[in-house]
């Protein structure tokens, strides 16, 4: 019903551009994680340990300068939004979704706790994946397990593999459904 009420501009331009943007952000994050895996294999300095004496403003945290830093910020926001959407889409937590003007206090507290845990894990998540090296205001690089090569390597490989699998499954499923609909085999 929402698709039928959308304007032609929204249907023909807005939805495809949003889909291309999401595909591009997912692809870029997978590429960055794959490069981080290669860095892990070749250089020990790629481990997400704390940065000692970071000279803010004098040295860029990105190889591509200002553009790379802006891309890191966009990717971190994308990871934040996708993790919240994924959290609320999981079958275990769909009941936690707030309802308009009918949300009990316990559900509100549960949502606050969930969002607090997700937002606290985001800096460690982005550092572990190699998307950014910046510590923000906390020294998240001092966790002992961030120095374990096998945990970091498997985490990065799992993220890249599962994200690629989901991306391929969604894209090929959508293309397959459109082909079936185009050839009239859906009847």
Distinctive features:
mainly alpha; globular; 187 residues
How does this model look, in words?
It is a single chain. The chain is built from 5 helices and no strands. The chain is an all-alpha fold. It folds into 2 domains: 94 residues, no CATH class; 39 residues. Helix 2 runs antiparallel to helix 5 and helix 3 packs antiparallel against helix 4. The longest helix is centred in the first third of the chain and has 35 residues. The mean pLDDT is 80. InterPro entries: LIMR, LMBR1-like_membr_prot.
What's a concise summary of this model?
This protein is mainly α and 187 residues long. The protein folds into 2 domains: 14-45 and 66-97 and 104-133, no CATH class; 148-186. The protein has helices spanning 2-5, 8-42, 65-89, 105-128, 149-182.
- Given helix and strand content, the structural type is mainly alpha
Molecular shape: globular
Q: Which residues sit in consecutive blocks of at least 5 with pLDDT less than 50?
A: none
Mean pLDDT: 80
Domain module count = 2
Strand content: under 5%
How many beta strands in the DSSP annotation? 0
Sheet with most strands: none
The share of residues in helices is 55-70%
Radius of gyration: 20 Å
Order of helices and strands: HHHHH
Question: Distance N terminus to C terminus?
Answer: 21 Å
**How many DSSP H or I helices?**
5
Transmembrane segments: 12-38, 58-88, 108-125, 145-168
GO molecular function: transmembrane signaling receptor activity
Subcellular location: Cell membrane; Endoplasmic reticulum membrane
Membrane topology: Multi-pass membrane protein
């Amino acid at each position: 019903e929402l698709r039928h009420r959308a304007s032609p501009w929204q249907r023909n331009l807005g939805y495809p551009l949003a889909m291309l943007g999401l595909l591009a952000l997912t692809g870029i994050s997978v590429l960055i994680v794959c490069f981080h895996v290669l860095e892990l294999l070749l250089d020990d300095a790629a481990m997400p340990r704390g940065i000692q004496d970071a000279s803010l403003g004098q040295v860029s945290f990105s190889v591509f300068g200002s553009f790379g830093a802006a891309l890191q910020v966009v990717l971190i926001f994308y990871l934040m939004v996708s993790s919240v959407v994924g959290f609320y889409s999981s079958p275990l937590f769909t009941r936690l979704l707030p309802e308009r003007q009918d949300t009990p206090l316990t559900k509100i507290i549960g949502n606050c706790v969930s969002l607090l845990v997700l937002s606290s894990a985001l800096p460690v998540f982005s550092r572990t994946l190699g998307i950014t090296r910046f510590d923000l205001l906390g020294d998240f690089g001092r966790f002992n397990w961030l120095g374990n090569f096998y945990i970091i390597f498997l985490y990065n490989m799992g993220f890249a593999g599962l994200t690629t699998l989901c991306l391929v499954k969604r894209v090929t499923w959508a293309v397959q459904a459109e082909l079936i609909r185009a050839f009239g085999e859906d009847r």
